[in-house]
Amino acid sequence: xxxxxxxxxxxxxxxxxxxxxxxxxxxxxxxxxxxxxxxxxxxxxxxxxxxxxxxxxxxxxxxxxxxxxxxxxxxxxxxxxxxxxxxxxxxxxxxxxxxxxxxxxxxxxxxxxxxxxxxxxxxxxxxxxxxxxxxxxxxxxxxxxxxxxxxxxxxxxxxxxxxxxxxxxxxxxxxxxxxxxxxxxxxxxxxxxxxxxxxxxxxxxxxxxxxxxxxxxxxxxxxxxxxxxxxxxxxxxxxxxxxxxxxxxxxxxxxxxxxxxxxxxxxxxxxxxxxxxxxxxxxxxxxxxxxxxxxxxxxxxxxxxxxxxxxxxxxxxxxxxxxxxxxxxxxxxxxxxxxxxxxxxxxxxxxxxxxxxxxxxxxxxxxxxxxxxxxx
Length: 376
Ligand SMILES: *Cc1c(COP(=O)(O)O)cnc(C)c1O
Fold this sequence. Notes:
- By secondary structure, this protein is an alpha/beta fold.
- The chain is 29% helix and 26% strand.
- The chain is built from eleven helices and 20 strands.
- The strands form three sheets. Strands 1, 11, 14, 15, 16, 17, 18, 19 and 20 form a nine-stranded mixed beta sheet that branches.
- α7 (142-153) runs parallel beside α8 (176-194).
- The two termini are 23 Å apart.
- The relative contact order is 0.14.
- Bound molecules: pyridoxal-5'-phosphate (PLP).
- The site of pyridoxal-5'-phosphate has 12 residues, from α9.
């Protein structure tokens, strides 16, 4: 979609905020490597631009969920290491090798197939081996990990560049389960060292762990959310992160209605007074949750105004009675700040009983992104 000319809604991505957040991660982790997570279109911020920005900041790797996301980065000319964090399937092996992508691996059949393919083309493929220390999702049981890593390390077509695991609840104040996971991973790492198996990277820490354990364990960290300016921790933010995304949309129409007029589908809102109702060109197809019907708040001309009636697929109504001189064509802030007021994705998340992650990566690709403060 074109980012030039008229658009109904716009996402402004402040790359200076992403650089600022990256520097905070850097300050937390010192000289450890940083694998910047740019899956899900960089949490809605736009994978290519964000990956370019972070690459210039000096990342050790980029992390994506799927092969296709890695291929998109390669096609955009991004050359550095890219970890495919949910793994790959057997039929994706040729692309993994051709595009020098680094798969997460936890399956013997796939390991054998990857080794065979790599040897046929006289290549050595980097892999990271996933260990399940308590997430109950991907990875080998810790009991099976040593044997698997040893076998993989002996294969000619394979280079075990890393081992990793994932925390289940490092965002909680009670870190006892996280400590158990950490202990298991340390056990595996130390055992490998004793066996003389040298693996460059061992990694576990997501944003929550980076923020909790400032001196992060192991030698590579995997921040996602915090790079985009949000804290995954409950309660007080412990770092001055800057949200990078602002979402603005235009007033399509504004009209004065008398008291007793119903607004939108289901007639769930009825005006109690003479009101100014503004119709905005943003709806749930754009990623503005329908759960924000009669619940959301936006900022119009520096004032917080309520969403009234149901959020529609492409439109949403606000009560702009308290706002003077709002006109059709003008911008309203949906996520962001204006003057003293702000509405951020974590607030939208609270109102809809979810997390900022889901709000951010739910913002639709049909809204053009513009990038501010790029550094060439
Ligand atoms: C998404 C993801 C991350 C990043 O998590 P945040 O909480 O956003 O920092 C790290 N590691 C893995 C394996 C992930 O899937």
